[in-house]
Design goal:
The protein is of the alpha+beta class. The chain is built from 5 helices and 12 strands.
Length: 201
């Protein structure tokens, strides 16, 4: 379980094509401190398993399903990535409950710059839009954010200087894909209400 509070802006150092999967090597001295084989690290919001580690880097295998569902397939050597270790039991929940299970991708549709923040518009598939509500939580590339406005196929977020400086959202441009994880509570509520509706028929 993660919180959506990015610990480090890492970098892809190698990508190996394994046919039906890819192996990524990533630099992240902060998140690899004390890491071990089998540990989890969120990369742009995707929970990956550490295969090898050392000298501030780690490798992780990414299966075809993950490449298809997320934007990790877009990464190349030199790409910057948001990195976060799982929340320690009893730790502070600074963002919101994030599973690291990406629901799909959105696309940066536009950026509106101001002196102290950016307003970013993100388009998303309609089947995900129903889980996004004004002032609700959403995870974008692993960053826990509050929705400013929600439409039938888009939402907007407001990014403060810290987020712009310390995450990939400061450099993403219109047309770039981003990973989205909607609030898991909304999905559970939908499933429970759906089951009740079916049983009432």
């Amino acid at each position: 379980m993660f919180t959506g509070i990015v610990e480090e802006l890492g970098e892809v150092t190698a990508v190996e094509d394994l046919g039906d999967a890819s192996r990524f090597s990533l630099r992240g001295p902060v998140v690899t401190e004390g890491a071990g084989h089998g540990d989890s690290i969120a990369v742009n919001g995707v929970c990956l398993t550490v295969v090898e580690w050392g000298d501030g880097e780690f490798t992780a295998d990414v299966m075809a399903e993950t490449l298809k569902r997320s934007s990790l397939a877009d990464l190349t050597v030199g790409s910057r990535v948001n990195l976060e270790r799982p929340m320690a039991l009893g730790g502070r929940l600074g963002g919101h409950l994030v599973q690291g299970h990406v629901d799909g991708t959105g696309t940066i549709a536009g950026r509106e710059h101001s002196e102290n923040w950016d307003i970013v518009r993100v388009t998303l598939p309609p089947d995900l839009a129903r889980y996004v509500v004004e002032k609700g939580s959403i995870t974008v590339d692993g960053v826990s954010l509050t929705v400013v406005d929600a439409g039938p196929d888009y939402f907007t977020i407001s990014l403060i200087p810290t987020t712009l400086a310390l995450t990939t959202l400061g450099i993403k441009q219109p047309g770039d894909r981003v990973n989205l994880e909607v609030d898991v509570v909304a999905k559970y509520v939908e499933r429970l209400l759906g089951d009740r509706t079916e049983s009432a028929k």
